[in-house]
């Protein structure tokens, strides 16, 4: 059985997925709400996130997220987040980049330009591959339906401008809900979706139509 590609994203209620973790994570476009997730994360969503990390046997990351992870997690193996750090350090890391980055973190591999072929190979090589953050790369995967499950944590905050997974000019896509939504004690909601591979359909609710 082929492995599955998961996309894990934390978003605001208005869909912004930019820089949930800290003020300097991604300031592109003058984004001033970096770290918006920190005051809102609770035990329930924390446990959901950890369950996903424990099931992961490979990471698939965009270049920016890889650089952030590589600069942080290898130095946390003896800290309070040691379980996450040791997991990430032990499993393979696959990086999508148009350049030739220095991938010094052990177990790191640069993907080739044919993303569809690379994803197909990862499905054969691993059971559960997770894309964490990597919003620009996630655009590509969603546009080409190169994923099996979108894990979307939606938090009760509105921040306005910022990077979104579903941009106004993005391609249409059909999704189906895989499980009932799960809410945390601080109002975050986990939504799990799979792509249908079909474009959205329309109807007419006009009386008598």
From TrEMBL:
A Pfam family it matches: RibD_C
Gene source species: Conyzicola nivalis
Bacterial bifunctional deaminase-reductase C-terminal domain sequence ranges: 6-173
InterPro entries listed in its UniProt record: DHFR-like_dom_sf (IPR024072), RibDG_C (IPR002734)
Gene3D superfamilies: Dihydrofolate Reductase, subunit A (3.40.430.10)
Full protein name: Dihydrofolate reductase
Top-level lineage group: Bacteria
